[in-house]
Structure formats: structure tokens, C-alpha cells
Batch of 2 targets.
Target 1
Amino acid sequence: YPEQQIINQPSGMVRTSSKAFLLEVPDLCPPMALCRSVEDIERERRKYPLVLKPLNEYGGKGLIRITGNRVWEDGKYRSFRIFAQAYAATPQPLLAMPFLERVSEGDKRIIVCSGRIIGAALRLPAHGSWLCNAAQGGVSVATDITPEERRMARRLAKRLQQEGIFLFGFDTLVGN
């Protein structure tokens, strides 16, 4: 690519960098809900095994997985009752979405600049883990882009350009 200066609008970065922004593109994501209370989390965990994501963390930090009455957090399991008590004491908004079983096959990080895909990597979790982030021990390998991912990139680029965002990355999950 020819050299050029790329600047994302700071206000757009603030607005779109929170995982809550995903709620504005629900057609590109698994079912999601913003949880602000134990009751919200209870409602979502009755539907399916969950992943809870802090809105402003990256690199797999702060992810929580709930399956039935088991909660995985910080590499340890505990009961939902104990988790709920701790969460109620210091609640923070969390984005809830279904735990997608095929995560062990990896996720793709796709990088887009001015509406064009400039690269992609398949991120694979470390042995015995479900976290694909390199910061959590995952590894990355070059990968191909599917036609569906190209459509997603165009759709996201159009929406994010409205916010002044021209360089961004998004993730897809193999098979989901």
C-alpha cells in the first residue's frame, strides 16, 4: 500500500472501543445482552452457557465463562452462588453472549483499513484453554478470508466510517 497517514477520530475510538458497541450491529454477532445485575446474568445463563466480557478490557482479560452452576474466572472454577455474591458487591456492566463450543478451533482476527481487508490471522488457544488471545497463550497463523467475512468487513467499515474509524480489527469464530 502506498504510504499515507491514517487517523481514527478520537471520539469515534472512544465510542466504538467498548464491547457495548457490538449491540449496534446485532446481525453480525451471536445473541448478546448487556448485564448490569446478578438478575440480568441469571436470565442469560438460563438460556445457554455464557461468556461474560468486561466492556473495556482486551487480550482475553476479565473473561468469565458460566456453564450451569460452574463459573470459570481467572483460571479457577467456583460456584455460581459465590460468583453472584462477589459480583453483587462490586457490579460492573458485562456483555453476555453464548459460549460457542467451536472456539477450540480458533478465531480469526481480521484487520481492515479504509474498507479493505489488509490481513487476517487464525488465533488458536493454548492446549487445554478456550482463550484464543496471544496474551493468554494462544498462537496465530496466517489464514484465508471467507466471502461472508468480506461482507462483514464491508458492513463494519461502512458503519465505523460514520464514527471516523478507518483502521480496525474484528473477530470471527470458526464455524460461527
Note: The radius of gyration is 17 Å.
Target 2
Amino acid sequence: MRLNIGPLTIELSGVTEQEIPVNSRLFLDRKPADKRADRHYTFHFVGRLPLPSNDWQAIFRRNDIVIFRKEERETRLLAIGNLHAYQEKDESNADIYFIEGLKRELQTDTLFISCLCLERPLSARGCYILHCAFLDYRGQAILFSGPSGIGKSTHANLWC
């Protein structure tokens, strides 16, 4: 299964279309694959998450994420929803690990998009991810950006 997110073509394995959120399915590539995917993600559902070995250096820590780096690769431990892990194998391949009993949580758009860790590949192409509500006003975009729960969608709906 493939997604087109901005300039990226992403190939997913280990999950079915029904296991990803409805809004994320809007990015499904329904055309025949005529080019190689830019990124490939393999989902694994495990009893215990793999932890980075001692040769990975922690470069960022916050209460919901720890990012490790080894050469040009990243490994992340994310506690968005429940703990899951992301590990780059090389610049275009990554593994995503979830605890087996948490597969249902993939249905949350924020969690699903977060586990893809798209910041680096998108920023390398001049694109960025914003957590926002969107409003089309006379052919122009208005974005309401801010933290979860602040009222972005409510405010955008009031304008409709």
C-alpha cells in the first residue's frame, strides 16, 4: 500500500488499509506504481519493543519522545498514545514497532502520522508538517495552528 504525502511516496507493509486512519487513507496512491517509493515503512507488532543499543546516542529528550542518532540514522521512542518505536535502517527504510495489543491505536490520525517520523524527509524537500485546522476562503488557505485541544477545529467550523 502506498501513500502520497506532499512530495513523498511512502510504501507501507505490515498493515492493511483498514488498519490505518480514515483521514490518512485520503493520501492513498490509487494509481499503478510508476515510480519507486521514496520511503518504505514496515510495521511490526511485538510483545516487547526493541531498545537502541549503547552505540546510539540520545540527542533529544522530552516526556513523550526520546530521539537517538547513530551516524545518519535515527531511532525514536515515542509515548504518543502508548509507547511505540521507530528505527531507521537506512535513508529510505524504517521499521515501526507497536506492542501487539495496541494495534487499534493506529486508527488515531495523530499517532499514525507521528509514527512515520516525516519531519526529516519532508524538510529535506522544503515541506513541513503543521498540526492545524484548514479553511478554504475564496480560494486561499487559512490555517489555525496550535496545540491539541485549543479549539482549532471549533474555530474553523464557526467560520463555515
Note: The beta strands are 2-5, 8-13, 39-46, 57-62, 65-70, 73-78, 84-90, 93-99, 132-137, 140-145.
